[in-house]
């Protein structure tokens, strides 16, 4: 779904009452007065839970002082997207993540026309990030996904692993009891423990877990 008609306001988060950055960005991008405004960190904190779809703009050098003076800005909130301007050098991934859901980053040496185009695209719902920043964030989130979806360490006994192997081969409870020389009720008891440890509800789910996590 295209968002070209999705009207949003850029809010420059600033400690200064003069808001020179706001004026500079407004003039540079030729945005209307209603499209960009200044907001103090205190105002942001007081309205954080009541407003959605806001684009917060930070001047890099000013933001370093802002973070020292104001703790716990809610930049990770899903209600906010952020833009960082006047960045003098490449930032570390941790530094980028400090700004929450970053939609745009502009280095201080970038041409004015590029900033104009980028701000317009961000207002229309798109991202405007340099390739190096995109690469950093992709690498970070791939690592996060991999860490959160890696196989869970489960304390299965040798017998329970044997039974899982039997399940993989399609054996019934009776066949498992015959193969392992145990009673069918003992098989059922082992299956109960296996299901509990794997947090699954049935044989099919247990087999799926075994196929993914047990070495052949």
Structural commentary:
This protein is α/β, with parallel strands linked by helices and 216 residues long. The protein has two domains: 10-149, Rossmann fold (3-Layer(aba) Sandwich), CATH 3.40.50.2300; 158-213, Winged helix-like DNA-binding domain superfamily/Winged helix DNA-binding domain (Arc Repressor Mutant, subunit A, Orthogonal Bundle). Helices cover 50% and strands 13% of the residues. Helix 4 links the parallel strand 4 and strand 5 (102-107). It is elongated and about 85 Å long. It holds the Pfam family GerE.
In the CATH hierarchy, the third-tier topology of the largest domain is known as Rossmann fold
Name of the CATH homologous superfamily of the largest domain: Response regulator
Mean pLDDT: 81
| Spatial separation of the terminal alpha carbons | 45 Å
The name of the CATH architecture of the largest domain is 3-Layer(aba) Sandwich
Uncertain stretches:
1-6
Query: Beta-strand level of the residues, as a percent range?
Result: 5-15%
Report Rg.
27 Å
Helix content: 40-55%
**Number of domains as seen in the coordinates:** 2
Key traits:
Arc Repressor Mutant, subunit A, 216 residues, WH-like_DNA-bd_sf, 50% helix, transcription, Rossmann fold, disordered N terminus, DNA-binding, transcription regulation, alpha/beta, 10 helices, five-stranded parallel sheet, Regulatory protein, luxR family
């Amino acid at each position: 779904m295209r968002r070209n008609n999705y009207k949003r306001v850029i809010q420059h988060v600033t400690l200064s009452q003069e808001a020179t950055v706001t004026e500079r960005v407004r003039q540079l991008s030729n945005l209307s007065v209603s499209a960009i405004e200044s907001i103090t960190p205190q105002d942001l904190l007081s309205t954080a839970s009541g407003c959605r779809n806001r684009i917060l703009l930070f001047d890099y050098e000013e933001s370093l002082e802002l973070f020292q003076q104001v703790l716990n800005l809610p930049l990770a909130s899903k209600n906010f997207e952020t833009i960082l301007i006047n960045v003098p050098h490449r930032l570390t991934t941790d530094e980028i993540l400090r700004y929450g859901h970053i939609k745009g980053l502009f280095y201080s040496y970038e041409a004015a026309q590029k900033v104009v185009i980028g701000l317009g695209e961000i207002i229309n719902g798109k991202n405007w990030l340099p390739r190096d920043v995109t690469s950093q964030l992709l690498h970070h989130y791939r690592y996060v996904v991999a860490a959160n979806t890696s196989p869970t360490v489960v304390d299965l006994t040798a017998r329970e692993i044997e039974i899982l192997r039997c399940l993989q081969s399609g054996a019934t409870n009776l066949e498992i009891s015959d193969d392992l020389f145990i009673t069918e009720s003992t098989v059922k008891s082992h299956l109960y423990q296996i299901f509990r440890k794997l947090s699954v509800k049935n044989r099919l789910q247990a087999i799926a877990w075994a196929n993914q996590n047990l070495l052949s």
